[in-house]
Amino acid sequence: MMAYAAPGLLAPSGDFAGVVQPFPRIGPRPAAVDGLIYRDPAMQAVVQRADRIARSDASVLIHGESGTGKEVIARYIHRTSPRHAGPFVAVNCAAIPEHLLESELFGHERGSFSGASGQRIGKLEAAQNGTILLDEISEMDRRLQAKLLRALQEREIDRIGGRAPIRLNVRILATTNRDLEQEVVRNNFRADLYFRLNVVAIHVPGLRDRKLDIPALAEHFIEKYRWENGRSERRLSPAALDALIAHDWPGNVRELENAIHRALVLTTDSWIDIGALEVVSRPTPARPADRAGSESAFAGLPLHLLERDAIIGTLRLTGGNRTRTATILGLSIRALRNKIGQYAAQGIEVPPSTAARTP
Ligand SMILES: Nc1ncnc2c1ncn2[C@@H]1O[C@H](COP(=O)(O)OP(=O)(O)OP(=O)(O)O)[C@@H](O)[C@H]1O
Ligand SMILES: [Mg+2]
Fold first, then answer.
1. Of 88, 56, 68, 65, whose CA–CA distance to 200 is shortest?
2. Ligand 1 pocket: which of 254, 255, 260 to mutate (most atoms <8 Å of CB)?
3. Sign, CA torsion 247/253/258/261
4. Are 97 and 91 in contact (CB under 8 A)?
């Protein structure tokens, strides 16, 4: 599940050929340089949904706050889909000026408009037999929305100034960090295109709502940047992990990644301590001295998250059997049912009951 644990991925020898390498890389290259790390049940539910969606060819709208990993999920869907051998092409609709976005997407023929010096293949065509990610789709203007809708409906595109239409076999993924439904209500986004893109939706929760991911992500980024900067082994101090878990993460995973990167660049100690992380968070209670350097995987994690993880994990182990789960965890059935009800109300996927099969 955690791709970075995959052994034996050594840095390919040709990787940096001809490039002056400022740092000697130490140890094997972490495998999941662009991988998807997750541990929290909230994120496990997202990945399960992505797994199911990947098998189909449906358009997907991925929404969530900035930095939550929407693009990471999009790449995961492509990688695990039947189109994985085809190209994955990402277009950021917010970063490209409006008048250029059309030719970026659809391409153009030589001389079709002033400034069109040569023929150009558009990104939709470049994604042929693969997947296109339309990033920040809410930023596309209405005229282009209409043209995109036509292309999706007819499954063909016209290059600007081109004569024959080109057949299109591309899967569409789109992301937004705005509420696209609201944009439809405000008349900024076409309802028909919205429905076309939103065949299935994935919501990527904010990092503050999946805090069990924090230790795994932190470890992953430590490995990534330690390796990239030629540093030897680094560990988070227990107090630093506390601070990461207490923090609210308005910038989500990207903010965590930057905090770890900065800490690795700025310090040379083998322990990364709070000061190096520079995350401003609620003060955390001091730990007893004897906990410093603790090897416990649970150190610094909020108990209610550990409880949730234990309950859902045990339900999976028992195939959803409530009675056995309650016995294993030392809970009453009633207490277990209450917890399960709470998780379901929070939208967290709970393994279904097998009560009918139990005596
Ligand atoms: N689950 C994850 N595992 C590993 N890395 C992640 C994960 N989620 C996000 N990242 C990393 O965090 C950074 C931000 O992720 P990404 O670009 O996918 O976010 P986003 O939701 O598309 O953000 P934005 O809305 O700003 O475009 C990237 O460097 C990405 O590699
Ligand atoms: Mg993005």
1. 56
2. 254
3. positive
4. no
- pLDDT at position 12: 34
Strand 200-203 and strand 88-92: pairing?
unpaired
- In tens, the pLDDT along 12-56 reads 333 333 344 445 555 555 445 458 999 999 999 999 999 999 999
More confident residue, 32 or 350: 350
Ligand located closest to 177 CA:
1
User: Residue type for 258, please?
Assistant: N
Q: What is the predicted pLDDT for the residue at 13?
A: 34
The helix/strand/coil state of 18 is coil
- Number of helices (H), then strands (E), belonging to the chain: the values are 14, 11
Between the CA of 63 and the centroid of ligand 2 the distance, in Å, is 10
In this prediction, residue 343 has a pLDDT band, given cuts at 50, 70 and 90, of: confident
CATH 3.40.50.300 residue window(s) in the chain: 41-206
- pLDDT per position as a tens digit, 228-252: 877 778 888 888 898 899 899 999 9
DSSP state of 5: G
| 40 phi and psi angles, rounded to 5 deg | -70, 140
Whether the pTM exceeds 0.85: the reply is no
- Best CATH choice for the domain 41-206 from the list 1.10.287.3510, 1.10.10.10, 3.40.50.150, 3.40.50.300: 3.40.50.300
Task: Report the atom number in ligand 1 closest to the C-alpha of 74.
Answer: 18
d(CA 158, CA 164): 7
The residue ranking higher by pLDDT, 149 or 281, is 149
Say how many Å lie between the CA of residue 67 and the centre of ligand 2. Answer: 7
DSSP 264-296: HHH--SSEE-HHHH-------PPPPGGGTT---
CATH architecture of 303-357: Orthogonal Bundle (1.10)
Local confidence band at 165 (pLDDT 50, 70, 90 cut-offs): confident
